[in-house]
TrEMBL record:
Alphabetized PANTHER family for the sequence: L-CYSTINE TRANSPORT SYSTEM PERMEASE PROTEIN TCYL, MEMBRANE COMPONENT OF AMINO ACID ABC TRANSPORTER
Matches recorded under CDD domains: TM_PBP2
Protein family per UniProt: Belongs to the binding-protein-dependent transport system permease family.
TM region(s), chain numbering: 20-47, 59-80, 188-208
Protein name (database record): Cysteine ABC transporter permease
Length: 222
């Protein structure tokens, strides 16, 4: 590799890292937090006896899981202005990613809740708890431990998926690399570099996931 390419790599490293820390990670955290709230709400409604809300949330999950995330982002950012709704790139990205996380994670949460033995419900009812109290105090804490590993995988996947926000002009890490490519004319070099940074971020998150799973395993065993 010649000196020019090495210099390009060195010069672009800090801007890419800054974009990752300042834009990619916050976007991931905000979207995941909102999406997780939506996922829990969706899961609870879908295991309830509320017929109309169940149909609405089932339709939401069906639409989001059945269409590409990139198409959803384009509809939100480029399509909605046609009906008078114009959103900033960050807002559009948060909405798109949150809806996606909510739909996919709701299946994880719902499966975790359903996996809790029925005896836990019956024991809760026997001490005078209502269904909502049993869900909040007994079922959800147990379901949380079950759902942590797949939800952690969902978050790691979300960090990678935020690169799609470049398509709606949000200045995250991949968008920054595209701009650098436009001035250096080194697409292979820059895209490999940003790929390595994504790999670094996801490796750190995977290590944190493994640590959390070990802690939860010890807690469950105790």
């Amino acid at each position: 590799m010649d000196e020019r390419k090495i210099q390009i790599l060195m010069d672009s490293l800090l801007p890419l890292l800054k974009a990752g820390v300042a834009f990619t990670i916050p976007l991931s955290l905000i979207s995941f937090a909102i999406g997780l709230i939506l996922a829990v709400l969706t899961a609870i409604v879908r295991i309830s006896s509320w017929r109309i809300p169940k149909l609405i949330f089932r339709f939401y999950v069906w639409v989001i899981r059945g269409t590409p995330l990139l198409v959803q982002l384009f509809i939100i950012f480029y399509g909605l202005p046609a009906i008078g709704i114009t959103l900033e790139p960050l807002t559009a990205a948060i909405i798109g990613f949150s809806l996606s996380v909510g739909a996919y994670s709701s299946e994880i949460v719902r499966a975790a809740i359903v996996s809790i033995p029925k005896g836990q419900w019956e024991a809760s009812f026997s001490v005078g708890m209502t269904r909502s109290q049993a869900l909040r105090r007994v079922i959800l804490p147990q379901a949380t431990r079950v759902s942590v590993p797949p939800l952690a995988n969902t978050f790691i996947g979300l960090v990678k998926d935020t690169s799609l926000a470049a398509s709606i002009t949000y200045m995250e890490m991949f968008r920054t690399s595209q701009q650098i490519v436009a001035t250096t004319y080194e697409p292979l070099l820059l895209f490999c570099e940003v790929g390595v940074i994504y790999l670094l971020f996801c490796s750190i998150l995977s290590a944190l996931q493994n640590y959390l799973e070990r802690r939860l395993a010890r807690y469950s065993a105790g």
